[in-house]
Write a structure and sequence with these properties.
Elements: H1 3-14, H2 20-36, E1 41-46, H3 48-54, H4 60-76, E2 80-88, H5 93-103, E3 111-117, H6 124-136, E4 140-145, H7 152-159, E5 165-168, H8 174-183, E6 186-189, H9 191-197, H10 206-211, E7 215-218, H11 230-239, H12 244-257
Parallel strand pairs: 1-2, 2-3, 3-4, 4-5, 5-6, 6-7
Helix pairs in contact: 2-4, 5-6
């Protein structure tokens, strides 16, 4: 699937999130997938600016209430959950500031992070002031990097953007793996998504990442578009030749590095 096609499918699905009830049902779907896969929690990426301002299809209050109710239901079922604000990289830092302008006043306590996604068209060094502002508000910082852009984006995100968590990172080179390992930067690895959106990256670098000491954990990005859950990602990792010890390391890293489990 071309990445542009993924974006189109994502935008089509986002049209359905037009009420508190619709947002609540979306969280419930995440809860069902997490429980079915044996997970204990989830970090949920959400795009309030796109829905509230760009589309104008839901109020911010209704959006927050749908998330809050869904997370409360998840907790009753034994799951921990939190929200990560999603900004679009190729829209640039001005868009990132707009996301923060919208969300920081009255930011709910279940929002734990800020991240960029989309096409990696804007240098991460240009995003540094946005990341600094989000960090000053108490948010953790992540970025999709080395997915549809060059592996050098991963290094730039960490060294010049101050990013503390990478999503994907699959195009990074060995020196960057060493950097990630040295700094203890967690990397969310999403084999199903990578297979669909980056079929040119073969073999998948997850085994090399683990050998280099990178703190990898399995993630799902994005099950609303690409069919996947944690069980499928674990099976994909096992098919790469990872043994029981490596799979246990992935689970441990997830438990230690997912923001939903942190105060």
């Amino acid at each position: 699937m071309p990445f542009e096609g993924f974006i189109e499918a994502f935008l089509f699905g986002a049209m359905l999130l037009d009420s508190r009830e619709a947002v609540l049902e979306a969280v419930r779907a995440v809860v069902r997938r997490t429980l079915a896969s044996g997970g204990a929690g989830f970090d949920l990426w959400a795009s309030p600016h796109f829905l509230v301002v760009h589309r104008g299809q839901i109020s911010l209050d209704a959006f927050w209430r749908g998330l809050e109710e869904g997370l409360a239901e998840a907790q009753v079922q034994g799951l921990r959950g939190c929200v990560v604000l999603d900004a679009v990289n190729h829209f640039g830092p001005k868009h990132g500031h707009a996301v923060l302008d919208l969300t920081l006043p009255g930011l709910p306590p279940f929002v734990k992070g800020f991240s960029t996604g989309g096409l990696e068209g804007c240098p991460f060094r240009d995003w540094a002031p946005v990341f600094d502002r989000a960090r000053a508000a108490g948010l953790r910082i992540a970025a999709h990097a080395g997915e549809n852009g060059p592996g050098s984006n991963v290094r730039e995100a960490v060294l010049e953007g101050g990013v503390e968590r990478i999503v994907h990172g699959l195009r990074a080179d060995e020196a960057t793996f060493d950097l990630l390992a040295e700094r203890g930067v967690p990397v969310d690895v999403c084999p199903s998504s990578n297979r669909a959106l980056a079929p040119d990256v073969v073999p998948h670098p997850l085994p090399r990442m683990l050998r280099a000491g990178v703190r990898c954990a399995l993630g799902t990005d994005d099950p609303g578009v690409i069919p996947c859950d944690l069980a499928m990602e674990a099976a994909a990792a096992q098919a790469m030749g990872l043994d029981a010890t490596a799979l246990a390391t992935l689970r441990r890293n997830s438990a230690e590095d997912a923001w939903c489990f942190q105060a």
